[in-house]
Structure to design on (101 residues):
C-alpha cells in the first residue's frame, strides 16, 4: 500500500471501487486514509489523488475550502505538476501503472 505524509501524518493510499454515488475518491484525517477508485484513467487517478490531498490540507489548516475550490486547486496543481516533470519528479498514483504497461 502506498503512503504519503501530510503535515507529518502518514496516510495510507488505498485503491478500491467506491460504490453508491459519483465519488472518485475519499479521504479521512481521522483514519489517515486516502481512497482512490481505480476505475478512472491514470490521469484522473492523479487528479483525484491531488483533490483528496487538498481536502486534507484544508481540514488540517481549517481553511474550509468548498468542493468547487478544492476541485479547481487540484486541477491547477495537476496541470503544473504534469507539465513540468523536470521540476516535480513525483510518482503519482496511476503514473507508475501506465509506465509499467
Ligand atoms: Zn472533494
Amino acid at each position: 500500500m502506498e503512503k504519503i505524509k501530510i503535515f507529518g501524518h502518514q496516510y495510507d493510499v488505498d485503491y478500491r471501487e467506491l460504490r453508491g454515488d459519483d465519488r472518485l475518491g475519499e479521504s479521512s484525517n481521522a483514519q489517515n486514509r486516502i481512497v482512490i477508485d481505480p476505475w478512472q484513467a491514470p490521469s484522473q487517478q492523479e487528479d483525484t489523488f491531488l483533490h483528496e490531498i487538498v481536502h486534507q490540507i484544508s481540514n488540517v489548516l481549517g481553511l474550509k475550502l468548498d468542493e468547487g475550490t478544492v476541485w479547481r486547486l487540484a486541477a491547477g496543481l495537476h496541470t503544473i505538476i504534469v507539465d513540468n516533470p523536470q521540476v516535480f519528479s513525483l510518482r503519482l498514483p496511476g503514473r507508475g501503472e501506465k509506465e509499467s504497461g
